[in-house]
Amino acid sequence: MNVGTITQLFGAGENECSIILLWTKVFASVSLTLWSAFLMWFVAGQV
């Protein structure tokens, strides 16, 4: 499914869709970093 199909489905413009994709990538990278830090802290605490 490409971006054009998604914009047609949601009725959003190209600008809104690019902002949504940008925030999705930002949120994914931040949550991945926090999850990795929590996992390492948790494993280190179990030893």
UniProtKB/TrEMBL annotation:
Pfam families: Mem_trans. The chain crosses the membrane at residues 20-44. GO terms for cellular component: endoplasmic reticulum membrane. It is found in: Endoplasmic reticulum membrane. Keywords: Auxin signaling pathway, Endoplasmic reticulum, Membrane, Transmembrane, Transmembrane helix, Transport. It is a multi-pass membrane protein. GO terms for biological process: auxin-activated signaling pathway; endoplasmic reticulum to cytosol auxin transport. Belongs to the auxin efflux carrier (TC 2.A.69.2) family. PANTHER family: PROTEIN PIN-LIKES 1, PTHR31651. Involved in cellular auxin homeostasis by regulating auxin metabolism. Regulates intracellular auxin accumulation at the endoplasmic reticulum and thus auxin availability for nuclear auxin signaling. This is Uncharacterized protein. The lineage of its organism: Eukaryota, Viridiplantae, Streptophyta, Embryophyta, Tracheophyta.
